[in-house]
Specification:
Blueprint lengths: L1 H75 L2
């Protein structure tokens, strides 16, 4: 009887150790997935920022061009 109980206890400990190992592997896998998602989100934000800055640069250049045209037309008409 004691041998059976001891064997059952050892089996339970082995099972607990295996479950802890699986849990640790799942946590590591989930951490890697979260890190990849963070990296992708940061890359998307960076590209969106670059697109915004390019559009802003274009608009600024267009405003400058329109001002030059307006100033040039005003001087020519005098």
């Amino acid at each position: 009887m004691i041998k059976r109980e001891r064997a059952a206890r050892i089996a339970a400990q082995v099972q607990v150790a295996e479950l802890q190992k699986q849990l640790a592997e799942e946590r590591a896998k989930n951490a890697a997935i979260r890190e990849e998602q963070r990296r992708q989100a940061a890359e998307e934000r960076r590209q969106e920022h670059q697109a915004f800055m390019a559009a802003l640069t274009e608009l600024t250049a267009e405003i400058a061009h329109l001002r030059q045209q307006r100033n040039g037309d005003g001087h020519n008409g005098q």
